[in-house]
């Protein structure tokens, strides 16, 4: 029997009409023909979610900007506030994924939940903006990689004077390496994500241990005071003094 002979006919709802469900191996649970090979396990799928939302690495690559926006308390309290909202978003997405399991994701859910009248419009704009979210997210992560690469090189080469075009070249290299991996190493993506998961968890653990253990040793300054960590706001962001003076009261309220 040829492969074309085992593709089932679909009814109005896309369901399988002929044959038992186990007879057609190239039909997925939703009744559609499986176009791509399923090479992701539960571990590798989880690794994709963790690597694409790798918050601590992004925070470490842009923490200088955060420190100017409130100092250490600004970083801590803003991270707590953002985490709460992310938990709410994650709970909503988990409910949608449980009720409407689909690899299409957000535009599929936006097409189904508003109903027939507004489903097409909501699905279009959800997919449209989600496309830009992935584009800008990829660009920002590649820019962080470019900044980190140039910073690491300049750390071991004191005579090197970094320029903006150095970061841009490193950014382009990161973008094209990522595109080449997706295009020509698709089968290796699960292993790459698993490797990324290991480095993320190991890097986070090592960073926490080093930051907790190294202060006060080898002539290094000791740990910061409680007030510096939790109360002393230092917002050098161009706002008036009245705004800066109101921030410690907000910190005490929190």
How would you sum up this structure, described in words?
There is one protein chain. With 254 residues, this protein is an all-alpha fold. Helix content is 64%, strand content 0%. It is built from ten helices and no strands. The chain has helices spanning 42-52, 55-61, 63-68, 71-99, 106-112, 119-156, 164-184, 189-213, 226-230, 241-253. The longest helix has 38 residues, at 119-156.
Short description:
The chain is mostly helical and about 250 residues long.
Number of strands: 0
The stretches of 5 or more residues where confidence is low (pLDDT under 50) are 1-24, 247-254
The assigned structural class equals mainly alpha
Give the radius of gyration: 24 Å
What about the largest sheet?
none
Order of helices and strands: HHHHHHHHHH
Question: Tally the helices: what do you get?
Answer: 10
Task: From the structure above, extract its key features.
mainly alpha; disordered C terminus; disordered N terminus; single chain; 254 residues
List the helices and strands and how they pair.
Blueprint: H1 42-52, H2 55-61, H3 63-68, H4 71-99, H5 106-112, H6 119-156, H7 164-184, H8 189-213, H9 226-230, H10 241-253
Helix pairs in contact: 1-8, 5-6, 6-7
């Amino acid at each position: 029997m040829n492969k074309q002979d085992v593709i089932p006919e679909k009814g109005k709802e896309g369901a399988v009409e002929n044959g038992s469900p186990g007879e057609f191996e190239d039909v997925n649970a939703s009744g559609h023909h499986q176009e791509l090979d399923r090479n992701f396990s539960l571990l590798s799928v989880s690794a994709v979610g963790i690597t694409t939302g790798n918050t601590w690495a992004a925070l470490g690559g842009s923490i200088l900007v955060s420190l100017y926006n409130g100092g250490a308390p600004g970083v801590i309290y803003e991270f707590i506030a953002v985490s709460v909202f992310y938990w709410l978003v994650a709970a909503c997405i988990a409910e949608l994924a449980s009720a409407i399991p689909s690899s299409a994701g957000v535009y599929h859910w936006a097409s189904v939940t508003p109903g027939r009248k507004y489903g097409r419009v909501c699905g279009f704009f959800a997919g449209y903006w989600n496309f830009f979210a992935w584009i800008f997210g990829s660009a920002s992560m590649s820019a962080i990689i470019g900044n980190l690469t140039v910073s690491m090189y300049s750390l071991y080469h004191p005579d090197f004077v970094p320029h903006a075009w150095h970061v841009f070249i490193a950014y382009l290299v990161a973008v094209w390496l990522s595109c080449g991996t997706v295009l020509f190493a698709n089968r290796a993506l699960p292993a790459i994500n698993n490797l990324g998961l290991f480095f993320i968890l190991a890097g986070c653990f090592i960073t926490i241990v080093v930051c907790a253990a190294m202060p006060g040793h080898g002539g290094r300054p000791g740990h910061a005071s409680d007030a510096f960590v939790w109360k002393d706001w230092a917002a050098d962001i161009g706002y008036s003094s009245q705004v800066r003076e109101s921030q410690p009261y907000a910190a005490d309220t929190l």
